[in-house]
User: What shape does this take?
Amino acid sequence: MGKHRDGAGRQTGSGRAGRAADRVAALIETVPPGSRLGTKEELRTLCEVSVGTFNEALRLLQARGLVTVKPGPGGGLFSAEQTPMVRLGNSVLALDAQQDDVADAVRIRDALDPLLIEDALWHASPADIQGLRRHVTAMEQAVDETDPGAFVHANWRLHAAIAAISPNTLLSSLYTSLLDLIESHTLSVLPADDQPLDEYIAHRCDLHRDLVEALDRRDRDDALRLIHEHSTSMTTAEMREPR
Assistant: This one.
């Protein structure tokens, strides 16, 4: 019973944070990109929530790519500048720059995935598989915490670990360089289309968990089927106009 009360409290807090985030988001819609919205305290007072609840609301706004925080005199919360976007399945990466470079890197990375899976099927040791499972665990934790940014970064670390198994150093280094390029320019992960982002990352987590288990079984057909499903939903790299 106590556990249920704790869960209800968290839901109530999350609801207040969500409503506060929505209120600030509505304010953002009325001002140009890059506009100063006020100090954290001013906006917290406007939203009529506690410091902890507003900090949670701020994390939600930052995850959506809606606000930036600047310290010092004249600082505070600002509406985010327009950012280029790259579409990945049912999520969108908000970038700081180089939209075309990132989109190309995504396409090339996904084209290399089957080669690295083939290498992992041949060369993955039990220790390698355990290492991959640890990355999947990090992805599961991000799903549980509804943190799409942490999920995507854990996902990239999993793929980097798969690449590290390959004895082909040129292939492995090229792949990790592409991952580094994508990651270095990603500001946040945003929802796209009608599927909620939390449902989408949960599905992606299941796919990657199954992929690691297929590698452990040395099940080539299943592993290649899964990486094809992975690439089918990720390689289009459709562009979305900056908001």
